[in-house]
Amino acid sequence: MKSILLIHTVPMTIETIGKYIYERNKEIVLENFLDEHILFLLKNNCEKEAIERLIKILDLAREAKRDKIMIVCSSLGTLLKKIEKNEDVLLIDEKMLEQASKNNNILVVATAKTTLEPTVNRILEKRKDVKIETLFVQNAIDEYRLGNRKTHDEYILSSIKEEVKEKRYDVVVLSQVSMGHLKMELETYIDINVLNSIDSLLDNI
Predict the structure, then answer these.
(1) How far does the chain reach from its first CA to its final CA, in angstroms?
(2) Which SS3 state, helix, strand or coil, does residue 176 take?
(3) Predicted TM-score (pTM) of this structure
(4) Which of 136, 178, 186 lies closest to 161, judged by CA?
(5) Residue 204: predicted pLDDT
(6) Which tens digits make up the pLDDT trace of 87-133?
(7) Is 193 helix (H, G, I), strand (E, B) or coil?
(8) 5-21 pLDDT, tens digit each
(9) By C-alpha distance, which of 79, 103, 109, 173 is closest to 71?
(10) 88 burial type by CB count under 10 A (0-12 exposed, 13-18 middle, 19+ buried)
(11) Strand 89-91 relative to strand 68-71: parallel, antiparallel, unpaired?
(12) In contact, 91 and 115? CB cutoff 8 Å
């Protein structure tokens, strides 16, 4: 039986990922580590402190002696790259970004501003000659936290549909786990490939 320790920065992803994995593989044992303060540091441009905090989190995660350690938050991707001895840590969105980088015109969508820059930078690390646009869906994350998931989803869907009316993209990247469930519904509205990180989660482990 495989065991995985997941590192979260928002509570909402714990339920989303837990349900996803349980429906597909009941043999996987999950343990969750939640740290919301590291996002506060990133939002306030305290990168040095955020890196130091992430190092401490990873040290604690290793003490649990699970088979795999995975970071769920896309905002932490760039931070992880700046830490030595990170080979044993997986990023939930790594395969998604690899797929995205194979396209020429990319739209990266996020409901948290701290996610946009790290996601764009990591795509550019994989391939420089791509065109990337970003779409920040304002207020959606607040609705999610209030429990208004339908409103959260409607904000995201309507924003993307409006964005792709005027411009042509090869792929839409749903950069956060919290919006990954919208992939199938979105593809019924737009004739563009949609990527999310949760679909490749089991491939990573």
Answers:
(1) 12
(2) coil
(3) 0.88
(4) 186
(5) 67
(6) 899 999 999 999 999 999 999 999 998 899 999 999 999 999 999 99
(7) strand
(8) 999 998 888 988 888 88
(9) 79
(10) exposed
(11) parallel
(12) no
